[in-house]
Design goal:
The complex is a heterodimer. By secondary structure, chain A is mainly beta. Helix content of chain A is about 5%, strand content about 55%. Classes of the chains: A mainly beta, B alpha+beta.
Chain lengths: ~375, ~150
């Protein structure tokens, strides 16, 4: 009897719980003007600007993509053996007709700290470029063509991004990356392939629709190491349909917003890296050779949410070659040429231009 | 007689502990403002769970339509005319332990997305509200401050 009484006593509150339909937002008859008179009990939270403007294309936490470039030709310079003054006929000027090149792209960006006062994000990325050659002219072989054909190029890296707002207007954006780039296999990685890039931007958040910034970067985007000033502008027009996303000179896009879940971008991106060659070849001519790959991608991008935070990204455009030349690193050490340096290239190669597309699926950030 | 005393003691213990539990849980009830100061949210208890409605907007008029803001980014087209003022953006929070409410969701009218959400009370007038996707690592924390009506 007593146990039944206790059971009923405990069960009573459960029976009294009102059934709440949490899915509905019914109109509520309430005088909202009373909330004008509310004030902080102690003090307001310190206000900081956020890292985004309204309708900015979503930031990707995890992305998986596939990049495809259509056919083009590669004409290579003579490749000299640095240990010999003798010309090697097997490394004379080469020619390869590339049927297509393609590769996977993976990236993960995890916000280690993410609050109103600071965002610290750590990431990892992988990108590869595999080359499918048509039948090669065996009378004009070249070790550069051979390693591209057999090994392709890949980049595996870590990166960090820090967004530090100081108040509602000013912020500092810091980005750094360390990438292993080359023709290596995963069993032949060493620090010869390590290349680092860094950028710092001081910015102003003018309002919810506009942020600008100026800074400096050390980058490999055009293939070889360079120091260049950068300009940031993220803007959304008052009609919330048009805008731009610019990080000049790396990329610049006009943005057209169709809804909160779909948008298109039109513009360009500079993409490149310096690839250390020779890890999987016994050719002395490839040792300490650094392939400076830089390309301009003029493109249209369409992004839309396919399910909650999963977004599809499809981009297509024209890939214009900026650089596919190669340097011989003196004593294996990187050097700075910049836009005005006169150091000669070890190889001056010509890469044809072509169309490309990149399809990806992304988990996007809140 | 001894059994009756034990029963009374047991019931008293149950009653007082559940009262204290409810007191802590109900600390969440009130009017709060996110760090951006754009809205004020009234958190209330419905049944055993906690919900939050937008009761004040810094900019209540849509600059494009010149009408009161509606939930125009809602993924469900049928709900895009629901007024933002009065909108329930915090839903289904349960009191987990001292100063923590979990299992709820938060809705962002700016993009029509709903996120998993946990609320932690740093002190009686400050909340850390973390919205996230799937796992807490993929999220962002905001600071909300308690408001009360101005004393004359």
């Amino acid at each position: 009897m007593v146990s039944k009484f206790i059971f009923l006593l405990l069960a009573l509150p459960m029976l009294c719980i009102a059934q709440v339909d949490t899915t509905k937002n019914q109109p509520i008859d309430e005088d909202f003007s009373q909330y004008d008179s509310y004030n902080y009990v102690d003090q307001a939270a310190k206000r900081y600007c956020t890292s985004k403007v309204l309708d900015l294309s979503p930031q990707k936490l995890i992305s998986i993509g596939y990049d495809f470039q259509g056919g083009y030709d590669l004409t290579t310079d003579t490749l000299f053996n640095p240990n010999s003054t003798q010309y090697e006929s097997k490394n004379g000027p080469g020619f390869g007709s590339i049927q297509f090149s393609h590769g996977l792209r993976l990236a993960v960006n995890i916000p280690v700290i993410s609050n109103t006062a600071i965002i610290v994000q750590m990431g990892a990325n992988y990108a590869e470029q595999r080359y499918k050659f048509n039948a090669l002219n065996t009378s004009a072989p070249n070790d550069l063509i051979t390693t591209l054909k057999e090994n392709g190029l890949r980049t595996t890296g870590l990166n960090t991004l820090i967004f530090k707002p100081f108040n509602e207007k000013h912020f500092l954006l810091f980005q750094a990356s360390a990438d292993l780039s080359g023709d290596y296999g995963f069993n032949s990685i060493n620090l010869k392939y390590l290349r680092s890039a860094v950028a710092a931007i001081w910015g102003w958040k003018k309002n919810d629709r506009k942020m600008i910034g100026f800074g400096l970067s050390r980058t490999y985007r055009v293939g070889e190491m360079n120091y260049i000033p950068v300009f940031l502008l993220n803007y959304t027009a008052p009609n919330r349909k048009n805008g731009c996303e610019i990080l000049f000179p790396a990329r610049a896009h006009y943005r057209r917003t169709f809804s909160a879940r779909s948008l298109a971008l039109f513009g360009y991106e500079l993409e490149g890296q310096s690839y250390h060659l020779g890890s999987r070849s016994s050719s002395p001519a490839l040792q300490d050779l650094e392939l400076r790959r830089g390309e301009l991608r003029i493109r249209a991008v369409y992004e839309r949410s396919i399910s909650s935070f999963l977004w599809l990204s499809a981009q297509a455009g024209f890939r214009y070659n900026y650089s596919f030349d190669a340097d011989r690193l003196p004593n294996g050490k990187e050097f700075f040429r910049g836009f005005f340096g006169t150091q000669p290239y070890a190889m001056q190669n010509t890469l044809g231009n072509t169309f490309y597309f990149l399809l990806g699926i992304n988990l996007v950030s809140p | 007689m001894k059994n009756r005393i034990n029963l009374i003691l047991l019931l008293t213990l149950l009653f007082t502990s559940s009262f204290a539990f409810a007191q802590q849980a109900d600390d969440l009830i009130g009017v709060w403002e996110p760090s951006n100061g754009k809205v004020r949210v009234k958190i209330e208890k419905l049944g055993t769970k906690y919900f939050g409605r937008i009761v004040w907007l810094k900019a209540p008029i849509d600059s494009v339509t010149n009408k009161p803001k509606v939930d125009k980014n809602n993924p469900d087209e049928a709900l895009r005319n629901v007024p933002i003022k009065g909108f329930r953006l915090l839903k289904d929070f349960s009191f987990k332990s001292e100063g923590e409410w979990t299992e709820g969701t938060i809705y962002d009218p700016e993009n029509g997305s709903t996120y998993s959400c946990t609320i932690k009370m740093k002190n009686k007038n400050t909340l850390d509200i973390r919205g996230y996707i799937g796992i807490s690592a993929f999220g962002r924390t905001d600071v909300w401050k308690r408001l009360e009506i101005k004393k004359q």
